[in-house]
Write a structure and sequence with these properties.
Length: 151
């Protein structure tokens, strides 16, 4: 069985174990493999700031990421919740980047999970004058955005 179909079936089975009968589609994109969940009852994954959705994404990545032959990862979304949150996080990151440029002082974002940190780092990387780094030793870490030192 092909990887995308195995991931889809794994998600369907995991959701069924949670008592949810939802539709699961896999979309291969350049920046990640999207596991799109839809259907009546999908809101259950979005309660409590989408903790169940985040947990499912961690489980899917833990189970299947090593089977990918590139550096992409799996993005699990339900009812386009993550699309909206990702856009919001990128917008907040750009706002913070402008503050760094204006004030010439480092700014913190977080604490953030690994998925959110990746979005912040990729957004900051779009500006060659700025740098970002994660600090902390737990699952949730803070991202520091700062101006690159000119040598």
């Amino acid at each position: 069985m092909e990887l995308n179909e195995r991931v889809r079936q794994f998600a369907v089975d995991t959701l069924a174990a949670m008592g949810l009968s939802l539709d699961v589609a896999i979309n291969d994109t350049p920046d990640g493999i999207r596991v799109e969940i839809s259907g009546d009852g999908g809101e259950a994954l979005l309660r409590r700031r989408a903790e169940a959705l985040d947990a499912l994404q961690v489980i899917v990545n833990t189970a299947f990421r090593r089977q990918l032959d590139d550096d992409r990862s799996f993005v699990v979304d339900c009812l386009d919740y993550r699309k909206g949150k990702d856009a919001e996080l990128r917008q907040m990151t750009r706002f913070t980047m402008e503050k760094v440029k204006t004030n010439r002082a480092s700014q913190e974002m977080g604490p953030l999970n690994p998925y959110s940190r990746r979005i912040v780092h990729l957004t900051v990387a779009e500006d060659p004058a700025l740098a970002s780094e994660s600090i902390g030793d737990a699952f949730l870490k803070t991202v520091i955005i700062s101006a690159k030192r000119v040598s």
